[in-house]
Amino acid sequence: MSTPLVVALHGATGTRGRPVARRLLEDGHDVRAVVRRPGRAAGCRPAAADLLDARSLAGAYAGADAVVVRLPAVFDDRAWRMARCVVAAVHGAQVQRVVVDTGCALPAAPTGLPYLDARRALVETLAHGPCDVAVVQPVAPAMEDLAVRDGVVVCTAAALPYIALDDVAGEIAAALRDGRSRLVCGPRAWTGPEVAAVLGDAAGRPVRWRTVAPVQPGDAAAGGFARVHAALARTPAPDPALLRVGTTDLVTWARRQAWRPALAA
Q: Which of 91, 167, 196, 197 has its CA 20 to 30 A from that of 122?
């Protein structure tokens, strides 16, 4: 059991943050949920703050032993502002430990995309500061990103080692304990057709697979993700020797989900 810490956790009420909050609470930490609009985060104390407001962040971080942060899915220059505000708040509140969940593998060089480049800048700037920094990089999409709609799952054709968010949360908790950065992935790679077969078996209905649909004009989020995915596709594969492999297999994960028949009709 590690020494209990006061941890300021971003996104504790969201899909990606809830497993982290649950794991940190299980480890005995005092978790402070840093959210713009305080909501339900079982077991956490709410701390209202805005990622675009360094002063509010510093207030949310005040007295915390550590901060766990993952920048949200923002594709414009706000991503840069958020990164700068986090750095300023960490330094202003004199936080000693920071764990950055990048949400994806970080390219080695700038890409021109704020979503990726702001994450690189956040990590690099914090690393040159007075606090201890660990970086958790999931190098494949989360299993929770897979969704069945009208009997179709949208995913890439390439085989990817999808990782469960519970496993990512475990690595974040470990990074908080040992201060070491890590690359993380799932236990094996699955192609698009294989993903469809696994989800169909779990849902009890046939599921078809197709690639990401063309981006519609005005769909900023879809266009942003498409550009990010294209940039990541050009990123060299990580050294397998550096990967930490999750324990949750896609089949096991899929069978645990409460698939509604309507989603797989």
A: 167
